[in-house]
Structure formats: C-alpha cells, structure tokens
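2 proteins. here.
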Amino acid sequence: MRRPSEPPALPAVSDVLGALSDTVAGVEDDLLASLVVMGEADAQRTVDGWVDQVVDLLRAVDEVAVQHRATLARAHARQPGVVDGHTSVGDVGTATALGPAATEQP
C-alpha cells in the first residue's frame, strides 16, 4: 500500500536531488579534465576504461536524479493547496492534520 507523500518534504527532496545533479556534473568535469597519461598502452587502456565507466555511472546517476525531480514536481503540483508550484500556508498541513472534514465547505 502506498503511503501518502508529505507535501512539505517534496520540494526539499527535489532540492537535494538538484544539488546531487550539480555535484555529479562537477565530478564528471573534474574527472574528464584530469586525464592520466600512463605511457604504456595496456595501462592506458585500463585507466581509460575505468574513467569511461565512472563517467557513464555519473551520467546515469544524474539522469535518474533528473527523472525523480520531474516526478516530485508533478506530485507536488497535485497536492491540495499548491498554487503555481507553491504550497499555500496552512492548506496542506491543516487539511492533513484535521482530516477531510476540515476542507469541506458548509
């Protein structure tokens, strides 16, 4: 059974994933900027293969982070009280704490 998401947590998780993407991009740039020249063909192929694998992994992590940020943005937009991507103060917390009757109009 799915647990309902906590609306205030969605933007925070999205911010963390954004920071992860930025960090991964920086690490990828640093790694590619520091190509090591070994001098031996076999050693060079080994190092180049390792660098390629790490760069592929970093790109895959970034891709997954971007996908999750898009999913979180859609989930956050579907939350009650969200207007233009921002939660109205009191709407979500009050509705969650008091239950469905708190949001019903007389």
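next one coming up
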Amino acid sequence: MTAGGEVHQPLRWPEGLSDQTALPYSLWKVLDLVDGNRSAMTISTLSGYTPEQVLEALARAQQWAQRDQQLRRVVTPDVAAEVTDCLRAVMGPIANIIVEEALDELEPEPAVNTLLVRISGELSPQHLQSFAQLLQQRGLT
C-alpha cells in the first residue's frame, strides 16, 4: 500500500517518459491528467481510478519509460554479444551470422530496438517467442 501522504502530493510524469512513449491506453488515461499540480486524490476523482491505482499507473509508466529508453540506446559490443548469445540459444551457431549481417545492414550506430526488429524478421514464430523470452530474462527488452 501507499503512505497516506503520497495521495495528496502533486504528481509528475516519470523521468524519461514523453508523449511519444508507447503506453497502454489505461496508463495514458491517468498520465493525461498528471500536470505537476494535481495529486493522486484529484486524479482519482477525474479518472475514476482509486488513488492507489493512480500511483500504480505512474509506477507502471516508469517501467515502460525505462524499457523504451533501453530499447532506444545504441547497440554496444556488449549488447550485441548478449543479443547474439540469446539468439544462439535459440538458433545455434547461425546466430553469429544473423546478428553480424543485421548490424552490417543497419546505420552505423543502430538502436537496440532497430537491431531486434531486423533480427525478428529472420525468425519463425516459435524461434521469435523463445528469443523474446531470453531477451526479457536478460533485461534487454
């Protein structure tokens, strides 16, 4: 649960969140009302959610913002190695070639999400699901 005072404090958007961040509608329904002046109690009245649900929506939006920032960061050699390891667990040694070719075809400093979209196009639905699970387990998505 939340401390009683939290529901009366002015709420701000989570750091890293922008109006371009892809979020579920239920979160935007709350975030559209967050203006730096309104409290969870006020937003609760306007949105129909409880104050606790408003605070939970902000916490979930923070997670989405962090994920979005992570996916937009530039692929480093360490990230490329982790992606390759995940893909190798699904596809075997061909993973090295798939990742290298994808990196060669992309702009000089591709974002992680760009690399993952490119690689995903090469995978069957079964392989894609396993690959996505491994990426998530390693915190890459």
